[in-house]
Structures are given as C-alpha cells and as structure tokens.
Amino acid sequence: PLSRGASRCMLQAGPKRGGRRMTWGAEHDAVRAVVVDYLEGMCWGDEAKVRRAFHPGALQVGHFGETYEFFPLEEFIAWLKAEETAPEGSPIVAELLSIEVTGTVAVAKLTDTCFGTDFTDYLVMVKDRPDASGRWQIVTKAYHVHAGRGLPPGA
Q1: How far apart are the C-alpha atoms of 110 and 96, rounded to whole Å?
Q2: Do the Cβ atoms of 147 and 116 come closer than 8 Å?
Q3: DSSP state string for 26-75
Q4: How far is CA 88 from CA 38, 82, 133, 152, 153, in A?
C-alpha cells in the first residue's frame, strides 16, 4: 500500500551524483505529501483529501474513453462521487517517478492504477506563498491512459 510512511521510505533518497546520494529536502517532502493525498483521495473516494490536494481553481485534462476531459475541480469531484472507489486503506498501485521543484512551482510525474485504468499523471503544483508557511496545491492534472476501461477507442 502507498501511505505517507511508505512513500517517504520508498522515495527517501534521490539519485546518485558523484557516488553520494542527494536528499530531496522539505519541499520535495511537501510535494510528495500532496501526491499521497491525491492518490488516496482519488482511489478511495475521499473528497476531503482531494480538496486538500487541489487548488479550488484546478483543472483536470486528458482523454478518458471517448471524452476529452477539461474539468474544473468541482466536476472532477462530482465524477469521482459517481465512481466505485476502493475501500479506504486498501492497497494503491502507484509509483512516483519524479518530482521537479523550481521555486514555487513543482511537477510530479507518477503512474497509478485506479478505476480499472492505468494512468500516467502529471501534477503541476504551485505553492500559495513563497516562504516556509506556503502550501503546495495541484493547479493542473494532465493524464494519459495506458490501459483499462478509460482507454480511448482506437488507441
């Protein structure tokens, strides 16, 4: 299962450079925590976690089945409420592939399986304040479907 503790353990050390492991630091930890809220909120249908992860003006963009989605957050939450989600605490199949942070902007790339569909998600985040009190939030989620029920026809 992917939980806050598990994700921190899985992603504790960064890539090797010059034979030494680089540590990610507090900003990467904060971005990773948003990714966990996003995954748990989406896969388990936890609206509070989804709302905590996303900025109220966020957009979700991608192709799911025959639909080209360009949804504001409220439409995404309404869609999520109509879906059959996994029970809270059940394992989440996901891998956080990368996090890039530049000042108050971050991008997280991950793969996940949810709703019988395999996705690659790009989560673009912005920190609401440039200092240590700032909070990271997803402003855009762009995704690609690789397999499963969300695969666009002819793909």
Answers
A1: 4
A2: no
A3: HHHHHHHHHHHHHHHHHHHT-HHHHHHHEEEEEEEEEEETTEEEEEEHHH
A4: 13, 16, 30, 28, 31
- Contact assessment for residue 44 and residue 125, using Cβ atoms and an 8 Å cutoff: no
Record the pTM: 0.82
Name the burial class of residue 149, with classes exposed (0-12), middle (13-18) and buried (19+) by CB atoms within 10 angstroms of its CB.
exposed
Strand-pair partners of 88:
none
Per-residue confidence in pLDDT tens, the chain, 155 aa: 333 333 332 333 334 444 434 445 889 999 999 999 999 999 999 999 999 999 999 999 999 989 899 999 999 999 999 988 999 999 999 999 999 999 999 999 999 999 889 999 999 999 999 988 999 999 999 999 999 988 877 76
Strands 54-64, 136-148: pairing is parallel
Look at residues 105, 95, 103, 118 and name the one whose alpha carbon lies nearest to residue 35: 95
CB contact at 8 A, 37 and 53: yes
- Compute φ and ψ for 18, nearest 5 degrees: 65, 30
Tokens of 122: 């790009």
